[in-house]
UniProtKB/TrEMBL annotation:
Alphabetical list of Gene3D superfamilies matching this protein: Immunoglobulins
Biological source species: Opisthocomus hoazin (Hoatzin)
Major location (coarse): other
Matches recorded under InterPro entries: Ig-like_dom (IPR007110), Ig-like_dom_sf (IPR036179), Ig-like_fold (IPR013783), Ig_sub (IPR003599), Ig_sub2 (IPR003598), Ig_V-set (IPR013106), JAM2 (IPR042625)
Taxonomic lineage of the native organism: Eukaryota, Metazoa, Chordata, Craniata, Vertebrata
Name of this chain's protein: Junctional adhesion molecule B
Length: 245
């Protein structure tokens, strides 16, 4: 549960009117109005004098609340208000990891890791073959490790600008925000291989031979007059038709 406290200094003899509102990006909405709760808090909140007790809080309850109290007296009406923020802490869920199963050496490869339920937002740590990867910093340890990647713990990305065969391995990511237990995605293997230059050359040669054979076929057909036979037959038909007329 969460308790939102709102205290006032109005005298007990005054007639009080109490309202609670929630301030959101799309506008202000009533939480407690005209003696009853509204919206998501209906049925799971109660008044504590002028404060609120919320049972079974959820992530949706996070936000900024405003308590407004107006008091009537012989001197007229007086108004007071207080604003407070409720942050509901949520443990991270299992992150979703995207790891390519294969890659070519020298290419740019990016691995991603993300979970959206944790509050505050999670930070991410990547592992290769069960060992935590180091961040690319100016420390001597990082320089000695000859790091070829950039790991962003805030966004969860692991970027290889020029991936190598040494980067082949089994990868997984861990999300944590200090609330509850950290969560890991399943292990995925990335295989990095050299570009098959000989295969590409062979394919180019085959395509070139096919194009050359097609060209020779067209030349041979043109030489034999296969492309002009139809037009000659058409001329003959037209001549006969003119004679008959």
């Amino acid at each position: 549960e969460a308790i939102l406290s709102c205290k006032h200094k109005f005298s007990k003899g005054m007639s009080l009117r109490i309202e609670w509102k929630k301030i959101q990006s799309r506008g202000v909405s009533f939480v407690y109005y005209n003696g009853e709760f509204t919206g998501d808090l209906r049925g799971r909140a109660e008044m504590l004098n002028t404060g609120i007790r919320i049972r079974n809080v959820t992530r949706k309850d996070s936000g900024t609340y405003r308590c407004e109290i107006s008091a009537k007296s012989e001197e007229g009406q007086r108004l007071g208000e207080a604003t407070l923020t409720l942050t509901v802490l949520v443990a991270p869920t299992t992150p979703v990891c995207e790891v390519p199963s294969s890659a070519m050496t020298g290419t740019v490869v990016e691995l991603s890791c993300k979970e959206t339920e944790g509050s505050p937002p999670s930070e991410y740590q990547w592992y290769k073959n069960g060992v935590a990867l180091l961040e690319k910093t100016g420390t001597s340890t990082a320089r000695a490790a000859n790091i070829t990647y950039t790991m962003n713990k805030k966004s969860g990305t692991l970027l290889f600008n020029t991936v190598t065969k040494n980067d082949t391995g089994e990868y997984f990511c861990e999300a944590s925000n200090g609330i509850g237990l950290s969560q890991k995605c399943s292990v995925k293997r990335m295989q990095v291989d050299d570009l098959n230059v000989s295969g590409i050359i062979a394919a180019v040669v085959v395509v070139a031979l096919v194009m050359a054979l097609c060209g020779l076929g067209v030349f041979y057909a043109q030489k034999k007059g296969y492309f002009t036979k139809e037009s000659s037959s058409q001329k003959k038909t037209n001549y006969q038709s003119t004679s008959e007329k």
